[in-house]
Specification:
This protein has twelve helices and ten strands. With about 260 residues, the chain is an alpha/beta fold. The chain folds into two domains: about 190 residues, 2-enoyl-CoA Hydratase, Chain A, domain 1; about 45 residues, Lyase 2-enoyl-coa Hydratase, Chain  A, domain 2 (Orthogonal Bundle), CATH 1.10.12.10. The strands form two sheets. Strands 1-2-3-5-7-10 form a six-stranded mixed beta sheet, with helices on both faces. A four-stranded mixed beta sheet has the order 4-6-8-9.
Length: about 260
């Protein structure tokens, strides 16, 4: 097994744990992650998924270069990481990248596919691919500009120079930067906050937000109205408003 998967208090934690290759991703690891995501999506006991890396130095170093070295053009079209990161991007439950160390290449692409990114101070984030004769080919050229703007995305990708976590925060690439000793606490606080929200509302709000970057505004607004119509018929909507009026914490059931 190349990953660890645990569930506590309805929060799933998926740990990429390949210390001998700096938590690099290969086809076997990608397949394990996809299976874990399938289980997390189906389980009513899981409200969100946290991704992190084993050890203290590296979140995920990227694709396994030994694996890439033997790939040919036809295999690029079948690349497992593109499929995996698209799966994470569209995953119906919230996702958090708890970045315990450096995130390079495919490791940063994995983080970009998540909804939230919390990085430890001093971590390096970057795309070294053009220095290897390739490009970020699992979503980096598309997801990075949507977060940081085209100019900064070009600087990061075309120069292949990494940025530190503090620069990444200023760019809008990560949501928070914390000292290493505070990473688990900060991740837990965000996860618990998300877990306290209405699950169906979270799912539809995430879908609407993701759609905003892909369709004309009129189509996005139509989806927004349709989603609100659905939510107005849920038990969670009734519970949420009742709890607010009664000045108590809501107890959402995802119904």
């Amino acid at each position: 097994m190349n990953i660890g998967f645990t569930v506590q208090d309805r929060i799933a934690t998926l740990t990429i744990d390949r210390p001998d290759v700096r938590n690099a991703l290969d086809e076997s690891t990608a397949a394990e992650i996809e299976r874990a995501l399938g289980n997390a999506e189906e389980s009513r006991e899981v409200l969100l998924v946290v991704f992190t890396g084993g050890g203290e130095k590296v979140f995920v170093s990227g694709a396994d270069l030994k694996d890439l070295h033997h790939r040919r053009s036809k295999q690029v079209l079948e690349a497992c990481l593109n499929r995996l990161f698209a799966r994470i991007d569209s995953f119906p439950k919230p996702t958090i990248a708890s970045m315990n160390g450096h995130a390079m290449g495919g490791g940063l692409e994995l983080a970009l596919a998540c909804d939230f990114r919390i990085a430890v101070s001093g971590a390096k984030l970057g795309f070294p691919e053009v220095g290897l004769g390739i490009l970020p080919g699992a979503g980096g050229t598309q997801r990075l500009p949507r977060l940081v703007g085209l100019g900064r995305a070009k600087e990061m990708i075309l120069t292949a120079d990494p940025v530190d976590a503090e620069q990444a925060l200023a760019f809008g690439l990560v949501n928070r930067v914390v000292p290493r000793e505070d990473l688990a606490r900060a991740t837990r606080e965000l996860a618990e906050k998300l877990a306290s929200r209405a699950p169906v509302a979270l799912r539809l709000a995430k879908a609407a937000l993701n759609l905003s970057a892909r369709v004309p505004v009129d189509s996005g607004l139509a989806f927004e109205v349709l989603s609100q119509t659905v939510l107005f018929e849920t038990k969670d909507k009734k519970e949420g408003i009742a709890a607010f009026l009664e000045k108590r914490q809501p107890e959402f059931k995802g119904e």
